[in-house]
Amino acid sequence: MSPDLLSGLARAPSAIAPDATLLPGFAAPGTELLEQLGSILAVAPFRHMLTPGGHRMSVAMTSAGALGWVTDRRGYRYDPCDPETGRPWPALPASFAGLAQHAAEAAGFPGFTPDSCLINRYAPGAQLALHQDRNERDFDQPIVSVSLGLTATFLFGGLTRAARPSRIRLEHGDIVVWGGAARLAFHGIAPLPAGFHPLTGSCRINLTFRRAG
Ligand code: SIN
Ligand code: FE2
User: Fold this and answer.
1) Tens digits of per-residue pLDDT, 164-175?
2) Structural domain total, the chain
3) Which of 24, 83, 107, 176 has the fewest CB atoms in 10 Å of its CB?
4) At residue 39, does pLDDT exceed 80?
5) What is the separation, in whole angstroms, between the first and last Cα of the chain?
6) Does the pLDDT at position 4 exceed 50?
7) CB 145 near ligand 1, within 6 Å
8) Which residues lie near ion ligand 2 (Cβ < 5 Å)?
9) Ligand 1: does its nearest atom lie under 6 Å from the Cβ of 210?
10) What number does the ligand 1 atom closest to the CA of 208 have?
11) Tell me: the pLDDT tens digits for 44-53?
12) Above 70 in pLDDT, residue 5?
């Protein structure tokens, strides 16, 4: 088998769990996303938020769209304004929303119209503990997650915290979509190993698209 054919096979969509799909390289090359990201960050820079329990998150976050996900001592929620500036979050670029809609459709969830994009930045050592995405209003809408930069290990578990998670390698340009029976699956990111990526340097960026409101 030719190397081309092999890499083609390796990059075919694959099921992580029922209603959870890995779309390898779907967002490649990702350069336009990163350019647009620069304009978002100029208005709403990354920040390390506090959990309700008072822990500073190792992942730096910001948002774009009509609603942004925030956490502080009062709890987790979506807010139309950035608490750092009191101003609305930057608009979701049409290209971001289009990509998310395309990916959702490819994974079997047509008609996805995100109104929120949570943007995560992982430096080496940063991690995201197992959690469910459950602050959104409508669990019929999937989550679309785009990975850029350094490779990470995605932990994808079941509907209870106790279920042992699968470990999935997420590379630059990969997209994961989960909805339906998997919508409330526990998931997280293992501590990020150090490395260098030509487009993001020493970090990983993740965009998760949601229909929050
Ligand atoms: C998230 O669960 O919000 C982000 C997951 C990831 O960084 O891949
Ligand atoms: Fe999540």
Assistant:
1) 999 999 999 999
2) 1
3) 83
4) yes
5) 48
6) no
7) yes
8) 133
9) no
10) 3
11) 999 999 999 9
12) no
- Whether residue 120 has its Cβ less than 6 Å from ligand 1: yes
Q: Classify each residue of 138-169 as buried b or exposed e, where b means 16 or more C-beta atoms within 10 Å of its C-beta.
A: eeebbbbbbbbbbebbbbbbeeeeeeebeebe
Q: Write the residue with the smallest CA distance to atom 6 of ligand 1.
A: 206
Question: What CATH number does the domain containing 110 carry?
Answer: 2.60.120.590
Determine if ligand 1 sits within 6 Å of the CB of residue 116: no
Average pLDDT, the chain: 94
Joined tokens for residue 98: 């289009």
Q: How many angstroms separate the CA atoms of 154 and 171, rounded?
A: 10
Check if 119 has its Cβ closer than 6 Å to any atom of ligand 1: no
Residue the block writes with tokens 């289009």? 98
If one compares 24 and 11, the residue with the highest pLDDT of the two is 24
pTM comes to 0.94
Structural domain span for residue 76? 3-210
